[in-house]
Amino acid sequence: MGARENILARIRKAQGRPGVEPTEQERALVREAVARHEVGPQPPFAHAPDRLAQFRRECERLGTTHATVASDGGIPAEIARYLDEGGLERRLAGWHEFAGLDWDGAGIAFDDRPATSQDRTGLTGCFCAIAETGTTLLLSAPESPKLTALLPETHLCIVRAARLLDTMEDAFALLRREVGEPPRSVFFVSGPSRTADIEQTIVIGAHGPYRVHVVIVA
Amino acid sequence: MQVVETDLGEYILQLAHEPPSHIVAPAVHKSKEQVADLFVAAHGKPRLTDIPAMTREAREALREHFLTADMGVSGSNFVIAETGTTLTVTNEGNADMVTTLPRIHCVITGVEKVIGTLEDFATLIRLLPRSAIGQTIANYLTLTTGVKMPGDVDGPEQMHIVLVDAGRTKLVGSDLQEMLRCIRCGACMNHCPVYQNVGGHAYGWVYPGPMGSILTPVYVGLENAGDLPNAATFCGECAVACPVKIPLPDLMRKLREQQFDRKLRPWAERMAIAAWGFAVTRPGLYALLSGAGARIAKWMGGRDGLIHSLPGIDGWTKGRDMPAPEGKTFRELYRRRRDSAADGAR
Q: Which of B8, B138, B154 sits opposite A145 (nearest CB)?
């Protein structure tokens, strides 16, 4: 017997179950329990009356800045405003999804490719966002490279208001409905990277971005 | 093989060749001056003592490693059975780099980390960052299920998951089973007066504080960590702070019982406990002995009411005096009070 079998046999023995393999009945019980996807306790504000206000409030608590635009057409101008305000270069590497917007009109150089360590600003969308915690959820796929959100010092994220959900459980339900099995990476981003490892002093910008700016498309 | 720690605190400790002193803030015992010296030696750059600037220097040094490493090794805070998912929880974003950039991703984690569903994860992740650092959520959560898919531009080509037992299954069905619920948040040590005074290194292994006082004896053997279950005042703060309601003081008490049963404590201590156990289960005998003891102790206190030396346990009185008791036991005082109350009622 290998280590795996030994470990599983020890657990069965300690639990007073006979044999070394689970019975068909035990397997069925497990399948049934998993299929229920039972939701545990949630805090009262998990289902806030004003979901968008809750999302904005949580973003602010985590150091994420946000702005709201009326339509996709308003995204480049808002981003130009944000970059100028922070004294940042008007250049970014972004997800292909946004390549068709009028970046030239806003005076921004848009590189339609995954961001590298050399890029200062990365622009991504998201699968959905979570109001309870001010979180955006990114799924790995050929046209949604994760590193664009992680390597540059500034991460810009477009959130569509229609894709804003209350909780992580709602996000998992949506994932099951629209995608099925989770893809390789399910990436939850809640604010800029931070550390407090030297003298418990909070520093923004550890390994990931120093700035996260969410643009909500109403 | 070159192995580089990527969490800033763990990186500092790797440079210092030291073990962690806290499971969430591993380098909490280091001053920025000490870290500055370590960075000068490791990076060969001018000495910085501004914490944000030091953090940036480490970021730049470690970014090189992220981009060039052949293999990333991570743990997994939970393992989700439903989907075969491993996951990391960080504020720095280091684990997200480690699990995305190198060609090979290796996960090493304990067998007790397995949970049922994604919904179970949603429940537990409400507890972990709140209890660990007071945030509603950690800045980065990455759920990893398998390798890079066709067309993906990032992600590892190979993934290996190593589930470690190393003593964990011994806990199943034992007195200490509840310890398997531990989510490694560190709340117990943050609230522990003993940890606050002795620091993490005094616990002698990777897990300090109350959770370490239970896990270390289990993993390295009670005979090798005998002081740990006794390094507690049983104030109970850890059990109050624990988000998964592990009765930590009760578990330490069970380890003390095991030490007694397995004769792992000094002979004199075991005899004293055995004698006390004999007396305390015989109320008449206990009243007689405690009554005599209280009177002797009062006599030992002399005129100033202080005992300057206790025979046999003089370590206790080496640097301080022990106030002598009043000469009557609680039960005697209680009986007298009850009787006088009854007289008054009559």
A: B154
